[in-house]
C-alpha cells in the first residue's frame, strides 16, 4: 500500500504544481477561478488518499469542509463575474399611436 500512496502523492503533487502554474499565468479571472477550484479538488483528493492509505477516518470532516469551500467559493465568485460577450440590445419596438380608451359604463 505504501507504493500506491507514494505514486498517488507524486501524481497529486505534479497536478498541484501545474494548477498553481495555471493560477499564476491565467489570462482571465475565470481561468484563475477554475484553477483555484481544481486546486481545491486536488487538495481534497490528497486528503482522501491520505485517509485511505493510513486508514484514518478523523480527516473526513476536513475533507467535507474543503469540498464545501470549493463549491461555495466557485458558485459565489462565478455569480459576480461579468460576462465577456456584451449583450445584444433589444430591438426597438415601433411605436404606434395609442387609441383613445372608451369610457367605462356604470354598472347600475
From TrEMBL:
Residues 82-108 are annotated as: Disordered. The keyword Transmembrane applies. The lineage of its organism: Bacteria, Bacillati, Actinomycetota, Actinomycetes, Motilibacterales. It is a multi-pass membrane protein. It is found in: Cell membrane. InterPro entries: MrpF/PhaF-like. It holds the Pfam family MrpF_PhaF. Belongs to the CPA3 antiporters (TC 2.A.63) subunit F family. NCBIfam families: PRK07948.1 (NF005930). This is Multisubunit sodium/proton antiporter MrpF subunit. Its main location: membrane. Keywords: Cell membrane, Membrane, Transmembrane, Transmembrane helix, Transport. The keyword Secreted does not apply.
